[in-house]
Amino acid sequence: MPATLAIGIVSVVFIIAVKVRVPLGVAFLGSAVLMCILSGMPVLDIPGAVFESLIAYETLRLVGIVYLLTLMGMTLAELGVLSKTVEALQILVSDKRVSMVIPASLIGLLPMPGGAMLSAPMVEEGSKKFDITRERLTFLNFWFRHLWEYVWPLYPGIILSSAILEMPVARLIGSMWPLTLCMIFFGVIYSFPGMEPLNTSSNKNGDWFSALGAFIKLTWYVWVVVVFVFGFGIDIFPVVAVCVLTMLLFVRGASREKLGLLKKGFSWRILTLVAGVMIFKGVVESSGVLGGLAVELSGIPPTLLLFAIPFFVGFLTGVNSAYVGLAFPVLLPILLKGGFDPGNFALAYASGFTGVLTSPLHLCLLLTKEFYSAKWGGIYRYLAPASISVLAIAVIIFILR
């Protein structure tokens, strides 16, 4: 069977599975098995190919990282660190509009499923002196929570991309960091007009410096990751492991409470998702589909593929891991043609992320919409132009690479 037809069938089956609420990990595993069958792999060889991908070092490493990140978010909540950090930042920032969205952007540093619900009440509280619609509130909480998706090494999309492309995280981020600046810029341009920059912070230098000291101390784990991952090039797994173990030492209570946190961090849904993505990647590589795809698509403009495949997978699933895990293994011949091309990668990643941001299936968007009782039309009035504007910058990066 032609590789393009096989990939098309697998993509359609995967999207249908997601729509009927099949767990993503199961959907990826089923897609991997279907890919093996459609590519002509002998049936008796399929279990071995799946198992080999499951026990691969990169798969086990990735599962460990995601587990630690989930545990980190729970531990910080247990310690009350997030709320204290927001209080310090509200003293540091004088512009009420900025302090209103700080909780969303701060919590966005931690990739927690449904994390938008943590910041939604705080953003609403900060908006009480402004006369703004619930649709704009939805955009503010949702958009500013996702600023860091292009640059923060704790996000699964970047970690998965690093694993699939076998490229250092720092190199991937180096090709996309302007897009985070663009998200901040366009978020302000499309949502701040009509709101006066009310001043609510203290004018006392003592209060400001105390808040700054508190902020630095409360976010020590952020600086540890930045210094050791970016500065010294140390793998993110041991860095995050040390941070989490250090946090657990400060959790009050007996060992039983700490053991409870360790158990809560073990989410089968999330960990099987990561394992499923890596199994699919391994199967795609071992099935010979990529070689056939490169030949069959040689006449189609690569730029079109870099945009269309990630965007539609992202839009139809609303999940970052889906477009990275499903599209990037397929696009490897283009992404790595002649070596790593930062422009190609930035366009593919931004296209997929634009699909995710604008998807009505995106969990954070759905939860925020329900929390504020907002209407879809009013939400997209802000979300659509802001998303398209950032994607346009990604296209410019691609052209000027």
Task: Explain what you see.
- The structure is a single chain.
- This protein has 401 residues and is mainly alpha-helical.
- The chain has one domain (3-400).
- It is built from 22 helices and no strands.
- The chain has helices at 3-19, 24-38, 46-54, 57-79, 81-92, 96-107, 116-126, 134-145, 156-165, 169-174, 177-191, 205-218, 220-231, 236-249, 255-264, 268-287, 289-296, 302-317, 320-335, 342-357, 363-372, 376-400.
- The mean pLDDT is 82.
* Total strand segments: 0
Radius of gyration, taken over Cα atoms and rounded to an integer in Å: 22 Å
Number of helices: 22
Mean pLDDT: 82
Structural class: mainly alpha
How large is the share of residues in beta strands? under 5%
Give a short account of the largest sheet. Answer: none
Task: Please provide a brief summary of the model.
This protein has 401 residues and is an all-alpha fold. It has 22 helices and no strands.
Layout: helices, strands, pairs:
Elements: H1 3-19, H2 24-38, H3 46-54, H4 57-79, H5 81-92, H6 96-107, H7 116-126, H8 134-145, H9 156-165, H10 169-174, H11 177-191, H12 205-218, H13 220-231, H14 236-249, H15 255-264, H16 268-287, H17 289-296, H18 302-317, H19 320-335, H20 342-357, H21 363-372, H22 376-400
Comma- or semicolon-separated keywords:
single chain, mainly alpha
